[in-house]
Predict the 3D structure of the following.
Amino acid sequence: MGEIIKVGMADLKTCLSPDGVTTLGLGSCVGIALRDPVTKVGGLAHIMLPDSTAIRNSHQNIAKFADTGIDELVRQMETLGAKRSRIVAKIAGGATMFTFQNSSSSTMVVGERNVEATKKKLGDLNIPILSEDTGKNYGRTVTFFPESGDFHIRAVGKQETII
Amino acid sequence: MSGLSLEQVSENYYDVLKEIGNIGAGNAMTALSQMLQCKVDMKVPQVKLLKFAEVGALMGGEEQIMLGVLLGVEGDVTGSMMFLVEQESAKHLVNKIMMGMASPGVEFTEMEMSAMKEIGNIITGAYLNSLSMLTNLKIFPTPPSLTIDMAGAILSVPAIQFGIIGDEILLIQSQFYDEVEIDGYFILIPDLESYSKILTSLGISL
């Protein structure tokens, strides 16, 4: 077993097998696990907002946004020897943590928007999404192993699943 | 207020919030003490501007199970407000309110969750009242929503709102005691336009 590298909120990290990457307590944010199955280069991005172009001062932290975060993760994986055309994705998160009656304000649907933006960006880069565990109303802790491509998902009061 | 960042806002806002935090948390504790019908002591609240990564650590790790109560804020100031408390402390509070009739363990029944929602409602209401009195602005809370989950997941909600303007989150940590020590966290999440409204109504120029 290798090391497990921790990824914070609005953060991204790459790793090489046998190491893994993890992020704790994903809520409305989305965790995007990428992997090149040949070189076993992997990475995980924990994005919190859909679109860097909609925001001023968006250069502050590119790992914060789905669009710039995914670009940067792919770039860093390429420097470790990953080939863009082989990269595949698994995604999790984008929950709606609080539900209100008669409310559809942007705060409440940000999880869904994060998932949509993530899928769009991966689509633009021709990166296939092999599996996902998104939406619903609970937080998730995720760990990704580029060796096997297993994406482990834990939630409060639920059994761990592997997607 | 185009181009206003949380860093710029925070220099002024920090001091103001500290004061509002003091008064607000004081009122919140009075409300809580009336509700619990016992004396509740509190320490001076700490106002903190934290990096996203530091927030989870403050509360005992991103996976620490917390109760979060979220309310919308409407009126002259718009946005939302969150109250967070660790689950064992929440259970203690609920048990007090239910006169020792709460269920054992850390699970919450429907009735206990509803009691906790009410506690959250009263303390955040008292806090918002102080803000409203000090600023002379109309501030109304909307009905609360409650969730029990990992600290990181609950905090993603305010963090995302703060993320629109920066990489830090502004929160008020207030410690209070009745028989046990309880850490509660208030997070006021004003919409961007509301920051300047709060500051100007307090006579602070930007």
Notes: Residues 140 and 155 of chain A are 5 Å apart (CA to CA). The beta strands of chain A are 4-6, 11-16, 20-26, 30-36, 41-47, 88-93, 129-134, 140-145, 150-154, 161-162. The radius of gyration of chain A is 15 Å.
